[in-house]
Amino acid sequence: MAAANELVKLTAAQMAEKIRNKEVSSRELVDAELNVIEAAEPEINAFLHVSADEARAQADAFDKKNAAGETEDLPELAGVPIAIKDMIVTKGIETTAASKILEGWIPPYDATVITKLKAAGMPLLGKTNLDEFAQGSSTEHSAFGPTHNPWDTSRVPGGSGGGSASAVAGFEAPIALGTDTGGSIRQPGAMTGTVGVKPTYGGVSRFGAIAMASSLDQIGPVSRTVLDSALLQEVIGGHDVRDSTSIPMDIPPVAAAAREGYKRDLKGVRVGLVKQFTGDGYQPGIEARFNEAVKLLQDMGAEVVEIDCPHLEYALSAYYIIMPSEVSSNLARYDGMRYGLRVMPPEGVPQTAANMMAYTREAGFGDEVKRRIILGIYALSAGYYDAWYGSAQKVRTLIIEDFNKAFEKADVLVTPTSPTTAFKFGEKMDDPLTMYMSDIATIPANMAGIPAMSIPAGLSDDGLPVGFQFMAPQKHDEQMYKPAAALEAALEEQWGGPIWQSLKTPWLGNAK
User: Fold this and answer.
1) What percent of the chain is modeled with pLDDT above 90?
2) Distant-in-sequence, close-in-space partners of 95: CB < 8 Å, separation ≥ 6
3) Which part of the chain is the Amidase domain (predicted)?
4) Do 177 and 205 touch, CB atoms closer than 8 A?
5) How many Cα neighbours within 13 Å face the side chain of 499?
6) Which of 38, 178, 275, 345 stands 20 to 30 A from 28 (CA)?
7) SS3 letters for 245-271?
8) Is residue 213 part of a domain?
9) For residue 283, is it within any domain?
10) pLDDT by residue (tens digit) across 240-261?
């Protein structure tokens, strides 16, 4: 078997090719990743649960089928191991949403995406850390301790899906699943130098995704390359009758689009530069890398046009009314009555159901979750519903109309993914508004239900990764994969290889 630090630096597509050519087994890949996880986790804390026994058993079962020639019809990523954000339920494996209120819960069923991964013969390495109930932008709000950024362990990996992003960035997994409600895949992608994709809303089933804000949530891929994300999206995508928001449509040809993009010919592609997300408010190094990337797109033949989306400046405000409102509704089910944590009132306090629920929620929910529940209850309360929630929904409609008009002039829209690189732990914890601003460029895509992707655009002046965001029209995810792959290839040539080659990973030297 090749050394762990050699195998884990392969892309998911490269791993898949070696499996098909019988150069490596799924079990060898799983063991290599588990060795890295064991070495890295004391420092990174990307995983809440490592399902080593299950992953090995799944890999062995795949290898047996592969040896018998029974894997021909499986997706290209068959046999490649994957990590799962702990917001997605897994039968027989603890699922907590990084909250004390669900600690110890073992789901009796799999999410649709997990069923698809298992059918594809892809071993599940474990469940990754996140901000509690996906509510945060730094993974500091996890009830089980923060995840550290592999680029600088004194800094956050972004959020809410910092665990999946750090696991992929730190070579603990080749690919992962995340959930994206306002940027929870893309913003960690920007801060960890990974590719993060939010597919079209309804393009990937949400059945089995623990609900945060149901009109915004979307499961999507986390990877180190655009092609890996495309291949994973084709595994998990498609209509699901168990999800009422699922779109009855064919999976977009995203892998073919990515492969076409690697040819680096963007003649005829119109790239829209969103006026509202350029200039002031962005770290100088981020603005510099963004402008350089736009120039590379032009050099490959793309036509760059400026796009005005006047209502996007209100997206953040509207989001922080709509999202907490849906949170307050979705989290009402955690009451201590049927499953999860139950805390009884102390002696001397009436032993009523209402008191039990109050004590359970007080002990089980963290401060950020409580903050958002309170905001949501206020926005939905009598006398305020029309003024707050109703007005926010009207703004959402205006944002959708802005995007519809923008896509008449451009095939894709581009922005920086995050206004800053990864910040230090504690830097924004006492200022929620500043923390919320981390998602200013990612939130609009969730509000409109359109697909969006962040890819690494190099390193800022502080030596930390920068993200470049593509957005495409609803149900046309492939339109962002082609220019994203082209830019990835051009940047790799410019930087002399992928940016993760400059990532120092002392834990790889400690892997068996």
Assistant:
1) 91
2) 86, 88, 89, 102, 105, 106, 107, 127, 210
3) 28-479
4) no
5) 27
6) 178
7) CCCCCCCCCHHHHHHHHCCCCCCCCEE
8) yes
9) yes
10) 999 999 999 999 999 999 999 9
Contact 147, 162 (CB under 8 A): yes
Which tokens belong to 124? 């599940």
Whole-number Å distance between alpha carbons of 374 and 425? 25
> For residue 448, how many C-alpha atoms fall within 13 Å in the half-sphere facing its CB?
28
Give the pLDDT of residue 4.
65
If DSSP codes are grouped into helix, strand and coil, which group holds residue 497? coil
> Considering its fold, how many domains does the chain have in total?
1
* Residue 471: strand, helix, or coil: strand
Q: Which one, of 451, 440, 445, 447, lies nearest residue 418 by Cα? A: 440
Just list the catalytic residues.
85, 160, 184
Q: Which helix (H) or strand (E) holds 234?
A: helix 226-236
CB neighbour class for 488 (10 Å; exposed up to 12, middle 13-18, buried from 19): buried
* Spatial contact of 499 and 459, defined as CB atoms under 8 Å apart: yes
Whether 39 is in a domain gets the answer yes
Q: How far apart are CA 276 and CA 398, in angstroms?
A: 15
Q: Which segments in the chain show pLDDT lower than 70?
A: 1-4, 512
- For tokens 């790239």, what's the residue? 271
Nearest to 116 by CA among 253, 237, 254: 237
Alpha helix stretches (DSSP H) within 381-418: 391-409
320 inside domain: no
Distances (CA, A) of 429 to 54, 88, 339, 433, 443: 36, 26, 30, 10, 20
- AA letter at 213: A
Q: Check: CB of residue 253 under 8 Å from CB of residue 196.
A: no
DSSP string, 121-189: T--EEEEE--SGGG--SSS---TT-PPPBTTBTTB---SSSHHHHHHHHTTS-S-EEEE-SSSTTHHHH
Predicted pLDDT at 1? 44
Q: How far is Cα 131 from Cα 137, in angstroms, rounded to an integer?
A: 7
Residues 44/128, Cβ–Cβ less than 8 Å: no
Token representation of residue 449: 């239900």
| Amino acid 171: pLDDT | 97
Return the structure tokens found at 283: 């770290």
Cα 512 to Cα 323: distance, rounded to the nearest angstrom: 44
**Which amino acid, residue 376?**
G
Specify the CATH number for the domain of residue 281: 3.90.1300.10
407 close to 399: Cβ distance less than 8 angstroms: no
Domain that holds residue 44: 4-311+398-497
